[in-house]
Amino acid sequence: MLGIDNINDYYDTSLKLDRLGILKRHQNFSFVRGSLENLELLESLFEQNDIDIVVNLAAQPGVRYSFKNPQSYIQSNLVGFANILECCKKQPIKHLIYASSSSVYGNNKKAPSSVTDRVDQPISLYAATKKANELMAYTYSHIYKLPTTGLRFFTVYGPWGRPDMAAIKFSNAIINHQPIEVYNYGKMKRDFTYIDDVIESVFRLIKKGPPSEAVSFHKIYNIGNHQPVELNNFIQLLEKHLDKKAVLKLLPLQPGEVLETFADIEELANDINYTPTTTIEEGINKFTKWFKAYKKLP
User: Fold this and answer.
1) Which of 80, 128, 194, 205 could pair covalently with 283 via S-S, beta carbons 3.0-4.6 A apart?
2) 198-204 contacts: CB < 8 A, separation 24 or more?
3) Which residues belong to any copy of the NAD(P)-binding domain (predicted)?
4) CA distances from 218 to 56, 136, 147, 195, 267 (A)
């Protein structure tokens, strides 16, 4: 198994290196530090290794950061993904699985969100790049018969998560007695999906194999918990398991943010015989245990 990451400084690299340290314990794992935007590097890696399945989870993430640094999204999410597609086409590989996002649904009023819903009105540049990835993948599947599967992830959380996401961001604020910026006064809902359920879903999709010509060699799934949780309730659970009260700074809805995410996962369940099962209470309990251990808290 070959991994590639540029270990950029979008957030604390020590967390990234600690994650990488876990992977390096496995004898069949090798790592290359580099960027997907470097086509020459990618081509050499594909030529030198017997690659049959590609799982592309790399991207410049985050809705709010896209307002500050749009160019990083163009380079990472569009140029980088185009390079992945080109290398997969030339190899050719058996199956490309790639990360999309629930952000592509924007502020669609229909709930739960289905993969058959229209997603042509993104409300952030990040969402626009993820929708573009889906269109690019479909085009390569149609023209070159490259099997591709896109995964619309719904607010993934758990141990080793990104520190700009709610779980770690809010937990850091709580233990340091710092205010949490709570948008739309906490009246937003997110379909929080625990990392173990995400991993199991991806693993089963790998085992299932690529989509066939019957679906134009291209498939999209929602990866969600199918249980939206109000942000205020999410914070209350963190307070409970960290045994500290949060300092809340209540603010109006921020540009680019959606009011609710809610995944229709019927198609995923039918195709891989699996439905995410981790409740928010169980997930927060597991997350906070890891968080306190990682931070060396009592």
Assistant:
1) 194
2) 198/153, 198/156, 198/223, 198/276, 200/274, 200/276, 201/151, 201/268, 201/272, 201/274, 201/276, 202/55, 202/97, 202/151, 204/272, 204/273, 204/274
3) 17-286
4) 15, 11, 6, 24, 14
How many CB atoms sit inside 10 A of residue 286's CB? Answer: 18
Q: Work out the burial of residue 48: count CB atoms within 10 Å of its CB; fewer than 13 is exposed, 13-18 middle, 19 or more buried.
A: exposed
Question: 78 near 86, Cβ under 8 Å?
Answer: no
Write down the domain spans for the chain: 35-160+192-226+260-277
Q: Does residue 208 contact residue 271 with C-beta atoms inside 8 Å?
A: yes
Whether this model's pTM surpasses 0.70: yes
Which one, of 106, 13, 1, 102, lies nearest residue 54 by Cα? 1
**Structural tokens at position 275:** 């439905």
Among 101, 104, 56, 49, which residue's Cα sits nearest to residue 83? 56
The topology under which CATH files domain 35-160+192-226+260-277 is: Rossmann fold (3.40.50)
pLDDT per residue over 230-259, tens digit each? 999 999 999 999 999 999 999 998 887 888
